Amino acid sequence: MEIITYSLRAGAQNSDQYYADAAAFTDEFLTQCEELAGPLLGDFQRANPSLSREERMLELLSLGTLWHIYSDDATELGTLPAAVLARLAAWRQECKALKPTIDWARGILATLFLEPEDDPMAGWFTVEYLDKLLDWLAATGEFRQEVAHLRPWRDFFAALPPAETADHLITAVALAIWFEDRSLEALGGYTEGVDRFLSEEYPCHRWREDVIFTGRKRVEYHLNMVGAEIMNRAFRADFVARPRKVVLVPACMRALPEADCKAEPSGMGLSCGACEPRCRVHQLTKLGEKYGFGVRILPHESDFSGSGGTATSDIAIVGVACVTNLVAGGWKAQALGLPAQCVLLDYAGCRNHWDDEGIPTEINIGQLKRVLALPTA
Ligand code: SF4
Fold first, then answer.
1. Is 174 in the same domain as 272?
2. Are residues 92 and 159 in the same domain?
3. How large is the average pLDDT for residues 206-226?
4. pLDDT tens by residue, 13-41
5. Which atom of ligand 1 is nearest to the CA of 285?
6. pTM of the model as a whole
């Protein structure tokens, strides 16, 4: 099978080894983060006690990684294009009817003003430059959750003497550099297609709305993999405590194209119409009928805005997603009050971003059963 960007199977029959590797490397990252940034995390947590230490470690890693990759692009973005692009990103969320027009405009403007370049890090380690980075991230429309989670760090740094802020930002970037090198050794076998995609196919995404989304670097895939593991641990107890479980799957798991799929709107997303027995979504739906969980199709991640009218106080969700959507999806579910666990797509294949024809995607059913505490035999 052609690997477009990543494959959790890496030549094996299934992705079991991936899940073991991701868990082991997450343990290593948490230990390293404690060693590098323990005092900073302690100070920040005393001022912001709402999330666990491990979740704060993920935020700090996100800050360092995004600074390392995008600070050069952020320093070049003017105030006016930043404001226009951020406004377009907000309208895209608010007005679905205008989405095609907005996407056309965003494709052009994002390529002109935001397209990432591989220049060295730029700017000084100051709150002013952190603001520039947050403005750039907001302008892309792809990092809404990241911006929301990094703002408290920005406010925390703004209250410190500048030299202390610089020390902390340097610590975040040092953590990111360690992570980039070490994650390549630990998880790089699963992301070997990313660099090929970026050099050979990514140029075709210029002038398209997904010019930022599809341009993610390999380290961002690894960040999402570790982030998913951290979130699964952090949200586990709340997830288990909720009696109703709903598995949200992306449209790219369907066997048939959208025009032929018989799924119908139903609460949180679409319910399978059972038109094709070989369809993975249909098979998951049958499994759900047997074990008592629901399955809904989300046509697009941005369609996930909560319950769709269903009361959610007793619902927990399993989000099935492409690697690059994991951290943002987990934070979004948390913001909506939905305890979540995630199961990764074994590989990417949707028509929207990765393949002209679309390759039906799959998940590790054993992992889904482990997440739902079902018999795996
Ligand atoms: S089986 Fe269900 S999800 Fe699959 S194509 Fe048919 S209606 Fe759509």
1. no
2. yes
3. 89
4. 999 999 999 999 999 999 999 999 999 99
5. 2
6. 0.91
CA of 55 to the centre of ligand 1 (A): 36
Q: What is the whole-number distance in angstroms between the Cα of residue 249 and the centre of ligand 1?
A: 12
- Do 44 and 132 reside in the same domain of the chain? yes
pLDDT tens digit sequence for 67-113:
999 988 888 878 888 888 888 888 887 777 788 788 888 888 778 77
Sheet holding 269-271, edge to edge: 264-266, 269-271, 294-298, 244-250, 315-321, 340-344
The domain in which residue 351 lies consists of: 242-371
Q: What is the best residue among 253, 272, 283 to mutate for testing ligand 1's pocket, by most ligand atoms within 8 Å of CB?
A: 272
> Would 1 be classed as within a structural domain?
no
Q: Which of 275, 283, 361 to mutate to test the pocket of ligand 1 (most atoms within 8 A of CB)?
A: 275
Q: What pLDDT digit, counting tens, does each position of 110-136 carry?
A: 787 777 777 766 668 999 999 999 999
Domains contained in the chain, number: 2
Asked whether residue 213 falls in the same domain as residue 246, the answer is: no
Angle (deg, nearest 10), helices 144-158 and 53-75? 90
CA distances from 142 to 11, 92, 136, 148, 291 (A): 31, 11, 10, 12, 35
251 C-alpha to ligand 1 centroid (Å): 9
Instruction: Name all residues whose Cβ lies below 6 A of ligand 1.
Output: 254-256, 261-263, 272-276, 279, 281-282
Asked if residues 347 and 221 have their Cβ atoms less than 8 Å apart, the reply is no
Distance between first and last Cα of the chain: 27
